[in-house]
UniProtKB/TrEMBL annotation:
<dbReference type="InterPro" id="IPR002347">
    <property type="entry name" value="SDR_fam"/>
</dbReference>
<keyword id="KW-0560">Oxidoreductase</keyword>
<protein>
    <submittedName>
        <fullName>SDR family NAD(P)-dependent oxidoreductase</fullName>
        <ecNumber>1.1.1.-</ecNumber>
    </submittedName>
</protein>
<dbReference type="InterPro" id="IPR036291">
    <property type="entry name" value="NAD(P)-bd_dom_sf"/>
</dbReference>
<dbReference type="Pfam" id="PF13561">
    <property type="entry name" value="adh_short_C2"/>
</dbReference>
<comment type="similarity">
    <text>Belongs to the short-chain dehydrogenases/reductases (SDR) family.</text>
</comment>
<dbReference type="GO" id="GO:0016491">
    <property type="term" value="F:oxidoreductase activity"/>
</dbReference>
Length: 267
């Protein structure tokens, strides 16, 4: 690896599994000291241990990102060991059956589902930025995980999609507020990434539908997301801020009406 993060301190939320675990591992592999933060202590510990197993420096942080006090303490714990934060990847989101799985049509929606989604996905990102910006003395890079669900509508997951859309606006506000201090803020918006959580959340028919929507034959992997997050977090993207970059293998680039029509006309 090129060591693009040699000597830098990175904090990744939702690092206990899936995309966050892969991004934490990538930043560590390229030289960063990584705080792997997750609500699930076992997940945070596993990611930090894996980083150390590969010769990197990883610290597990257990924290609910929707709780301001816990976020403050987690950031302080990281800073007590490493002095500051250079990279924040705010990636934690509610993606379980109890909340995301019940985020369905609005007329019967349990408003607790809406509230918890906003608390974790949106308030959590705000709290992470609020408590991390003051410990970025030399500027820094913030990457938020949004989703293609922010960019189009669907018949389910209004809370999730709305929270992810708000993160795109929040990205621009953070970029605007702190640009003069050398702090950049960008978002990544993946389409389906086949993490264990995504596999649990979607039926085989939904997975097949998503495959049919892609222009490219391959779906995004956690490594693809880590590639983009690492690019946005490192100096190679020093002039990129306030942007949302989509990784979707071409899902949103087209409106395949002719293809749909042709497939209907086929015998
Ligand atoms: N997998 C996909 O298809 C996909 C597509 C687009 C966007 N995303 C986004 O990517 C991110 C990661 O998704 P994933 O597939 O890796 O899911 P995941 O469930 O594996 O990862 C989310 C992590 O966040 C943690 N978390 C949940 N609530 C938390 C809280 N309150 N405080 C701290 N940590 C908390 C979970 O414990 C989990 O480890 C999420 O923001 C998700 O919305 C995923």
């Amino acid at each position: 690896m090129s060591g693009r993060f040699d000597g830098r301190v990175a904090l990744v939320t939702g690092a206990g599994s899936g995309i966050g675990a892969a991004c934490a591992a990538r930043l560590a592999a390229e030289g960063a000291f990584v705080g792997a933060l997750d609500l699930r202590a076992a997940g945070a510990r596993a990611t930090a241990a894996a980083i150390r197993g590969h010769g990197g420096t990883g610290m597990a942080l257990t924290c609910d990102v929707s709780d301001g006090k816990q976020v403050e303490e987690a950031v302080a714990t990281l800073v007590a060991s490493f002095g500051r934060v250079d990279v924040l990847h705010s990636n934690a989101a509610v993606f379980d059956q109890d909340v995301y799985g019940r985020d369905r049509e609005l007329e019967t929606l349990d408003t607790a589902v809406w509230d918890r989604t906003m608390e974790v996905n949106l308030r959590g990102a705000m709290l992470m930025v609020k408590h991390t910006v003051p410990v970025m003395p030399d500027g820094g890079a913030i990457v938020l995980t949004s989703s293609v669900s922010a960019l189009v509508g669907d018949t389910v997951h209004a809370a999730y999609g709305t929270s992810k859309a708000a993160l795109i606006g929040f990205t621009r506000y953070v970029a605007t507020m702190y640009g003069s201090r050398g702090i950049r803020c960008n978002a990544v918006a993946p389409a389906l990434v086949l993490t264990a959580a995504a596999r649990r959340a979607l039926t085989p028919a939904q997975l097949a539908d998503k495959a049919a929507e892609r222009l490219l034959p391959w779906p995004c992997t956690v490594e693809d997301v880590a590639n983009l997050v690492a690019f946005l977090a490192c100096d190679e993207s020093r002039c990129v801020t306030g942007q949302t970059l989509v990784l979707d293998s071409g899902t949103l680039a087209h409106r395949p009406q002719h293809a749909v029509q042709q497939s209907r006309d086929l015998p």
